[in-house]
Model the fold of this input.
Amino acid sequence: MDVDNSQRRMAAYMRDHQDKVVDRWTELVVAGLRGRSSAAEVRRELEDLYSLVTRSMSGSDEPAAGEQAMGELRAALTELSRSRARNGFTPSETALGMFALKDAVYELVADSADLVPDYLAFSRVVDDLGLHTFETYAAAREQIIADQAEAMLELSTPVVRLWDGIIAVPLVGTLDSARTQLVMEKLLETLVATGADHAVLDITGVPTVDTEVAQHLLKTVSAARLLGAECIVSGIRPQVAQTIVSLGIEFGDIATKATLADALAHALRSTGQKVGPA
Amino acid sequence: MERVPILKIGTTLFVSIQIDLQDESVMRLQEDLAEELAATGARGVIIDITAVEIVDSFIGRMLAMIGSISRLFDAETVLVGMRPAVAITLTELGLSLRGVRTALNAEKGLALLNGSA
Done:
């Protein structure tokens, strides 16, 4: 139980020198953040953390209270690293907040040799907390990326009405199965809702067409056909046409056009509508 | 087993499926329709599946077969009112119902038959 004793002694020592350590800690952290948070703000955060650290380290007197303080401390750190991740701080800046405490304490205990084992026990606690900070930071960043991917998916699949009975889907970005599914659902729902019987799939914004993308396009077209709507694929660029031919992709009897305008003209012709000068 | 009624309107047979399709009822429908086609000499069949929410590969194949049978009687089949979810399911199953024509609703289906007659 040496480690527990060391931790307890260190906790008592840190409580006695609270003001000094927190001052130095604040100083180090503020310097590391390069003026993105005010000193008063940082101090308030660190004071809370500091008292939680000392309480959780003196835990062997009352294990329940120590565990509770540890839980609170982890929750507080989670919250802190999440907000750091959201505000665009780097991983080192976030982790530094915790590790600077070691430096601040070390400067005090450096001269007294008898405190070395205690300091080592304390150092291990801080390392654990630093790792926890880093982990939650990474998790928060991943969450942000996932949210953005989802938002992009929503944004990138509009279905627009071009004319009476003609709708268009301008596809922008890579077509993977998740997006194809979304595009297909939206297209079919719009076909039913508007009663349109022609749909133009415009792939001007699709960077590359490989066999997989073509497969997805064909699937969408045959689903629309089952509803009784005719599909036209437009926006085929010269390079894309070359790729399609050299990959041996067959579009079968699906009409393909170079531009959206050509596709609209084709659809107007086959619905028997005419547009002329007013 | 529930039976699907077949209505004759002019030279068109109209079938509206309002029940959850079981394998047996689809097979029965196929038989009834063949007999009706032979008896009336109808030129077109409209199958309305607006109320059908679930299809499996068997029902998909039976629908395609109904189309082929009608063609033997020189009648054109139009499947109308398919729901998006049903269309996606059939596509995923690899059934594109080549021999059957489709339309968004019964009105367009009738127009399709009349236009091609």
Remarks:
- Chain B is about 45% helix and 20% strand.
- The two ends of chain B are 35 Å apart (CA to CA).
